Amino acid sequence: MIKINVKYNGKNYSGEQTGKQIVLDAKKIIVDKVKKHAEDTLLEVTTPLNPMIARENGSFEILLEDRGGEIGVAFESHGFSPELTQQIAEALNRKIKQ
Question: Which superkingdom is the protein from (predicted)?
Fold first, then answer.
Protein backbone atom coordinates (compact mmCIF):
# COMPACT_ATOMS: atom_id res chain seq x y z
CA MET A 1 0.00 0.00 0.00
CA ILE A 2 1.16 3.52 -0.67
CA LYS A 3 0.58 5.97 2.12
CA ILE A 4 0.44 9.57 1.00
CA ASN A 5 0.88 12.52 3.31
CA VAL A 6 0.58 16.04 1.97
CA LYS A 7 1.94 18.95 3.99
CA TYR A 8 0.96 22.47 3.06
CA ASN A 9 1.63 25.59 5.11
CA GLY A 10 2.19 23.58 8.25
CA LYS A 11 -0.99 21.51 7.92
CA ASN A 12 -1.07 17.77 7.27
CA TYR A 13 -3.50 16.23 4.82
CA SER A 14 -3.39 12.47 5.14
CA GLY A 15 -4.28 10.09 2.33
CA GLU A 16 -3.74 6.80 4.10
CA GLN A 17 -7.39 5.80 4.37
CA THR A 18 -9.53 4.40 1.59
CA GLY A 19 -11.32 7.08 -0.37
CA LYS A 20 -9.96 9.88 1.77
CA GLN A 21 -10.00 13.16 -0.10
CA ILE A 22 -7.10 15.47 0.25
CA VAL A 23 -8.04 19.00 -0.68
CA LEU A 24 -5.58 21.83 -0.64
CA ASP A 25 -7.00 25.33 -0.94
CA ALA A 26 -3.98 26.99 -2.44
CA LYS A 27 -3.96 27.19 -6.23
CA LYS A 28 -6.75 24.60 -6.34
CA ILE A 29 -4.23 21.80 -6.07
CA ILE A 30 -6.21 18.66 -5.42
CA VAL A 31 -4.96 15.20 -4.73
CA ASP A 32 -8.31 13.65 -5.46
CA LYS A 33 -8.75 10.12 -4.20
CA VAL A 34 -6.70 7.36 -2.75
CA LYS A 35 -8.31 3.99 -3.36
CA LYS A 36 -7.24 0.78 -1.71
CA HIS A 37 -7.54 -2.52 -3.52
CA ALA A 38 -7.57 -4.90 -0.58
CA GLU A 39 -7.52 -8.08 -2.64
CA ASP A 40 -3.90 -7.65 -3.70
CA THR A 41 -2.84 -4.65 -1.60
CA LEU A 42 -2.58 -2.46 -4.64
CA LEU A 43 -3.17 1.20 -4.16
CA GLU A 44 -4.33 3.23 -7.11
CA VAL A 45 -3.89 6.96 -6.93
CA THR A 46 -6.53 8.47 -9.17
CA THR A 47 -6.25 12.21 -9.09
CA PRO A 48 -5.69 14.88 -11.59
CA LEU A 49 -2.71 12.54 -11.99
CA ASN A 50 -2.67 9.64 -14.36
CA PRO A 51 -3.61 6.49 -12.47
CA MET A 52 -0.55 4.97 -10.85
CA ILE A 53 -0.52 1.49 -9.40
CA ALA A 54 2.25 0.21 -7.20
CA ARG A 55 2.84 -3.20 -5.67
CA GLU A 56 5.25 -1.86 -3.09
CA ASN A 57 4.87 -0.94 0.55
CA GLY A 58 5.96 2.38 1.90
CA SER A 59 5.00 5.97 2.34
CA PHE A 60 5.28 8.99 0.12
CA GLU A 61 5.33 12.52 1.42
CA ILE A 62 4.51 15.55 -0.70
CA LEU A 63 5.74 18.83 0.73
CA LEU A 64 4.09 21.92 -0.73
CA GLU A 65 5.30 25.40 0.02
CA ASP A 66 3.84 28.74 -0.99
CA ARG A 67 6.64 30.79 -2.49
CA GLY A 68 4.90 34.10 -3.06
CA GLY A 69 2.36 32.99 -5.64
CA GLU A 70 4.29 29.92 -6.76
CA ILE A 71 3.87 26.51 -5.23
CA GLY A 72 7.11 24.73 -4.45
CA VAL A 73 6.90 20.94 -4.48
CA ALA A 74 9.22 18.44 -2.82
CA PHE A 75 8.88 14.69 -2.52
CA GLU A 76 10.16 12.20 -0.01
CA SER A 77 9.58 8.46 -0.09
CA HIS A 78 10.22 5.72 2.42
CA GLY A 79 10.48 2.08 1.41
CA PHE A 80 9.91 2.48 -2.34
CA SER A 81 12.31 1.68 -5.13
CA PRO A 82 14.06 4.71 -6.65
CA GLU A 83 12.31 3.95 -9.96
CA LEU A 84 8.85 4.11 -8.41
CA THR A 85 9.70 7.26 -6.47
CA GLN A 86 10.90 8.93 -9.68
CA GLN A 87 7.78 7.84 -11.57
CA ILE A 88 5.40 9.18 -8.92
CA ALA A 89 7.34 12.42 -8.48
CA GLU A 90 7.34 13.11 -12.23
CA ALA A 91 3.61 12.48 -12.54
CA LEU A 92 2.84 14.68 -9.53
CA ASN A 93 5.08 17.46 -10.82
CA ARG A 94 3.42 17.41 -14.23
CA LYS A 95 -0.06 17.74 -12.78
CA ILE A 96 0.75 20.21 -10.03
CA LYS A 97 2.39 22.55 -12.54
CA GLN A 98 -0.58 22.50 -14.91
Answer: Bacteria
